[in-house]
Specification:
By secondary structure, the chain is α+β, with helices and mostly antiparallel strands. It has a six-stranded antiparallel β-sheet, with helices on one face. The relative contact order is 0.12. It contains eight helices and eleven strands. The two termini are 25 Å apart.
């Protein structure tokens, strides 16, 4: 394959159940973009059918195009190529999954981040989710690999293929799991249509715990101080609420979770500076 529509294909960036993402070049503008085209896996095609998958892909395009936020990836173009829809986005070569060294063997330990960086990333995630949830959209696949990082260390939510409007029925067969193992909330694994905003916040809690510890959370939850000794029990309380198996016991809004995390982080910074002096400045991440 050399072209998709008017875009020259430079390489394959990744593939999932719904489609493949390519690095492409615009015929006039001398810069790279990312292009996602509907190319469903055979198993998903058999389960869902071509018409239903085209409709879901079209929904993904409309939902992403209707959002404008610094922490949500923007759609720049959308067309058809040989009866296959595709859309074009800014290209960013790094993501949070690569940053922590997570592999597709998700259960393997990953690289913990400094507290400052883990919290900063999480606050941006929650900012993006606040906008997403305000639009009535539940993402349902919050995980490190679905957060791109710009050259200025800005987090952007991507991949809305499993998202749905609150109250909307996904219409997937009962045998189809929606979301990613270890990140999906318990109720989402049991019944994807029951996942609401708190399911996205649960997955955000999984992300933060992993960024701080290098490990996936287990129940009962190991104290975060086991992995980050300068975090106290107040952080255990925060993470315990974020990762509560019962949706009613979690944070109910992304903005509330963000405000709580920001306040907790500010107190941690003040305590650190009172003990050790100013925090060292965290250098920006380099794209790899």
């Amino acid at each position: 394959m050399k072209r998709i529509g008017r875009y020259s294909v430079r390489g394959l960036l990744g593939k999932g159940g719904m489609g493949r993402v390519y690095k492409v070049a615009h015929p006039v503008i001398a810069r790279g973009f990312a292009l996602k085209r509907l190319e469903p896996a055979e198993g998903l095609l058999r389960l869902m059918g071509a018409d239903r998958l085209r409709a879901l892909f079209a929904d993904e395009i409309r939902r992403m195009a209707g959002l404008a936020h610094p922490h949500i990836l923007e759609i720049l173009d959308a067309e058809m190529d040989h009866a296959r829809p595709f859309y074009v986005m800014d290209y960013h070569c790094n993501n949070l999954g690569q940053t922590i060294g997570e592999t597709y063997r998700t259960e393997k330990p990953s690289r913990p981040l400094p507290v400052d960086r883990a919290v900063r990333n999480s606050l941006q995630v929650l900012d993006g989710l606040t906008r997403l949830h305000h639009a009535g959209i539940v993402h349902r696949d919050i995980k490190h690999f679905n957060f791109l990082l710009t050259a200025h260390d800005q987090v952007k939510i991507c991949d809305f293929g499993l998202s749905r409007l609150r109250g909307e029925k996904f219409g997937a067969p009962a045998t189809l799991k929606v979301g990613s193992p270890f990140y999906a909330a318990p109720e989402q694994a049991d019944d994807p249509d029951q996942a609401d905003f708190t399911a996205d916040l649960y997955a955000t809690g999984v992300m933060l715990y992993r960024m701080l510890s290098g490990r996936l959370p287990e129940h009962p939850l190991s104290p975060i101080s086991r992995w980050q000794p300068d975090l106290d029990r107040a952080w255990d309380k925060f993470l315990g609420r974020a990762l509560a198996p019962d949706p009613a016991a979690r944070f109910q809004r992304a903005a509330a979770m963000r405000d709580d995390l920001a306040a907790r982080h500010a107190r941690w910074q003040a305590q650190w500076e009172g003990t050790c002096g100013p925090l060292p400045e965290t250098p920006p991440l380099e794209n790899t």
